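Subject: Diacylglycerol kinase catalytic region

B.,
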Amino acid sequence: MTKRALLMVNRYARKGQKSLAQAVDALNELDFELITVPIKSCQELAESVHKYGPHVDTIIVGGGDGTLNSVVDSLLEQQLPLGILPLGTANDLARTLSIPLSIPEACKVIAQGQTKLIDLGWVNGKYFFNVASMGLSVDITEKLTKGAKRRWGILAYGFTALQVLSQTRSFSAEIRLNGENFPVKTIQIAVGNGRYYGGGMTIAQEATIDDQKLDLYSLELKSWWQIFPLLWSFPQGQHGLLPWVRTLRGEEIEINTRKSLSINTDGELTASTPAKFRVIPKALSVFVPNIAEAATD
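Prediction pasted inline below.
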């Protein structure tokens, strides 16, 4: 049976320009009837979903985490299953869902039809997949250029972090969770919904994208050398074991700061403090690999 799909590819994603034709060929071979829209701006994503959503069975998005973040609100309105073609630099949502980075293999995942209901994060009216954060990560986002991401890939995040670390200053905030207040002085607060962010760093050891919880960490460093243990612990999600990292878990979180700070959601600056966060359980259906088949390969 032919499946109707809207295929939107961010041509300015790290692998977007080269992968569009490859994705079209692979999906045509898998018996998809495609409406293909090369995307030049984030605004076009939402417009295309609203225009073509009522006429298709599936929405397929090719791009990185920022592209997916741009379309998440309109995807939620249409309530259509999402197919992901990971074409970005970090591809953290694809990593969380075990979606292969190969375009033909990612297309096969969509064609197999196995879906998973995932949670979404929400902050001040904006939905996100992976993580929302303030402080150091915002400085990195503002400094990181598209050219650096295309040239260096995931390494661009590390290079940029080293550049901004010396200029980043701590800020005061009050975190409210489960009826308790936590005053902090920190260089970064992150609130995670998924498992991975920032090119494969783990939000928390036990974090999953369908656990109906948000995982918060606050980096309350007092000396510059404390950054080095973080480099070893973040990939495994063990940063919570360090005494200068505060970790909290819950369904709703409030964060207030003395002055308004920008908030980064999945790599895009979309909100600011004061902020209210909540998890939206089982909000969106996403195509994922068939675990049983993968185990026998």
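Residues 152-156 have pLDDT under 50 and may be disordered.

T.
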